[in-house]
Every structure is written in structure tokens, then in C-alpha cells.
Specification:
Layout (H helix, E strand, L loop, with lengths): L2 H28 L21 E2 L2 E2 L3 E4 L5 E3 L4 E8 L9 E8 L2 E11 L6 E2 L4 E5 L9 E8 L5 E2 L1 H6 L19 H12 L12 H13 L13 H4 L10 H12 L12 H13 L10 H8 L1
Antiparallel strand pairs: 1-2, 3-10, 4-9, 5-6, 5-8, 6-7, 7-9, 7-10, 10-11
Helix pairs in contact: 3-6
């Protein structure tokens, strides 16, 4: 092999490696806490993206639960449609469309009730509607769509959210270093309960990242800094009325992301108990007022 060919091959290899690294970094950066699970429930048979619908295919993912189950904004944005069918062809029932900027939209269909108005600004995890059975349905569920590039350019919601750290089927979220926002505040409060003394600023920078890695090593976990399905279960606490401290502040911050409007004071009193019970009720969890792993998983998803 000549030196020129070798140089070209090495250059091509370096370019490929650089591209792979860039793609990996981009994928990691997407798990930045900006997205949230829009609803809890089960995936019904035939309700997946691309399932046949007569001469067309299903444009979203269905999440089934009972009428009145809470529906949340999947990310911050502006409500641009609030009408029967959401102004898109082939859809039915009361619907909302949220614009998240950069050509990204989410669609929420078959709603029983709206909780936000047209043109409202919403935050990730904010309650925006109630699940229902309006339109052509066989039972109550959320019809959830993700659009990328333009409104009408649907993509698989399960894969779209997974790339952003959210498990639409209801699993633990994945939060990477570089993230920011309410879920990072939750992580920092929980870490402080473990004695790490972090500044609670909602920014998952190098200091918080190194602290999480130390915690992961102490628990025998892979020390990658990602707060995900392996780390969340050992980071959270089971809490009930009477508890106090940073772990309760974490719980209150997580509830506030889901529209609870609590004072983050670290005291698990009757007001926080009522907020936990209300959250459990509207998400069809066991209503016991205790924040255990199932409630934490839902709150941080």
C-alpha cells in the first residue's frame, strides 16, 4: 500500500471515528432533562406507530388508561392547536398540538378535557389535559404523536422520546451530564441527602457529574454519570408524612414539575401528603400518600 493511499485511509478512518464520536455526543446531549413522559398507562395491542389503519398507518403511540388520567406536556412549548382532531387530517377527538421550536411538535388526542388554552406557554411535565375517549375509539387512551422537521412529519414517538431519555412505556428516565432543569434539581437534592453538599442550581455540570460518579462507584454501579434505570432506584428514598430533609425537597421539586405548586421546604407534612395522593390518583397509582419507587419512577419519567 502506498503512503498516499495509507494517508487517505487513515484520514477516512479518523473522519469516521470523529463522526461516530460526534453522533454519540449528540445522542448523549439529547438526554438533557428537557422532555417528560406525557402519560402513564399500557401500550394496547395494535396501538403502535405504523400499525395499519385501513389504507393508512397509525401516526402515533397509544397509551391506555382510564378516563381522567393526567396528560402532561412532553416538553416546554406553545399550544398551537386546541380543537377536534387538532386540525390534522385523519385524526379524531379533542386534541392539543404543542410547538417546541426547531420544527418539533407533539400531538395529544382523544382528550376528555383541556387544562390549558390556545397559545398557552407550557413547561415540560405540566398537566395540560385529561385522558379520554372522544372521537373514534374503542376505549379511553392518549393518542400521542411526535413530529420532527414540520407539523405533519411524524416519527416513532417511542424511539423519539427514548433518544431524549424518556421511556414512554413508563420506565425510569435517563439524565446525562450537561442536562438542566427541574429533574436535575431533584437529583441534586437527593445527592445532598447522601452528603454531597451540591449547590442546587438545576445544572448538571462537572461538579454534580463527578459527585454522581462517586455515588455510583460507592453502589457498585457503572460510574458513567448518567442517572438512569440503574441509579435512580438506589438514589431515591421511600418517604411518608413526617419525613424531613433534602430528600423531601427532591420529592417536592418532582411534584412541582407535575403542577403541584408546593413550597420546597423539606417538610413532608399534610400538604405534601395531599399532593402525593393527588398525583397518585390522577395517574392511577396506588393512592397511599407514600412516595415509594413506583411513584418516584412516574414522577421523574
Amino acid at each position: 500500500m502506498g503512503l498516499g493511499v495509507l494517508a487517505v485511509n487513515l484520514s477516512a478512518g479518523a473522519s469516521t471515528a470523529a463522526a461516530t464520536t460526534a453522533q454519540s455526543l449528540a445522542a448523549a446531549a439529547a438526554k438533557n432533562g428537557a422532555w417528560a413522559n406525557p402519560a402513564l398507562g399500557r401500550f394496547p395491542a395494535g396501538g403502535h406507530y405504523g400499525a395499519p389503519r385501513g389504507g393508512a398507518s397509525h401516526a402515533g403511540q397509544d397509551v391506555s388508561n382510564s378516563t381522567g388520567t393526567a396528560v402532561y406536556a412532553a416538553a416546554a412549548g406553545t399550544v398551537v392547536r386546541r380543537s377536534w382532531g387538532g386540525g390534522l387530517p385523519g385524526r379524531t377527538g379533542n386534541a392539543l398540538v404543542i410547538s417546541h421550536g426547531n420544527g418539533q411538535y407533539t400531538y395529544y388526542g382523544h382528550l376528555n378535557a383541556y387544562r390549558v388554552g390556545l397559545d398557552a406557554r407550557v413547561s415540560a411535565g405540566q398537566r395540560i389535559a385529561d385522558m379520554g375517549a372522544t372521537g373514534n375509539v374503542t376505549g379511553p387512551h392518549l393518542h400521542f404523536e411526535t413530529h420532527s422537521g414540520r407539523l405533519g412529519g411524524t416519527v416513532n414517538p417511542v424511539a423519539f422520546l427514548a433518544a431524549r431519555g424518556v421511556d414512554l412505556s413508563g420506565g425510569w428516565s435517563r439524565i446525562d451530564p450537561g442536562a438542566s432543569g427541574a429533574t436535575v434539581v431533584v437529583i441534586q437534592h437527593l445527592m445532598n441527602r447522601r452528603g454531597y453538599g451540591l449547590v442546587v442550581d438545576g445544572r448538571y455540570g462537572s461538579v454534580s457529574g463527578e459527585a454522581v460518579k462517586r455515588f455510583q462507584r460507592s453502589q457498585g454501579l457503572v460510574a458513567d454519570g448518567q442517572v438512569g434505570p440503574a441509579t435512580w432506584p438506589v438514589l431515591v428514598y421511600t418517604l411518608r408524612q413526617g419525613a424531613g430533609g433534602s430528600h423531601v425537597r427532591a420529592l417536592q421539586a418532582a411534584l412541582n414539575k407535575r403542577s403541584a405548586r408546593l413550597a420546597v421546604d423539606g417538610g413532608f407534612g399534610s400538604v405534601t401528603t395531599s399532593a402525593v395522593r393527588a398525583y397518585q390518583s390522577v395517574n392511577r397509582l396506588v393512592v397511599d400518600g407514600e412516595a415509594g419507587p413506583v411513584t418516584w419512577r412516574a414522577l421523574t419519567g
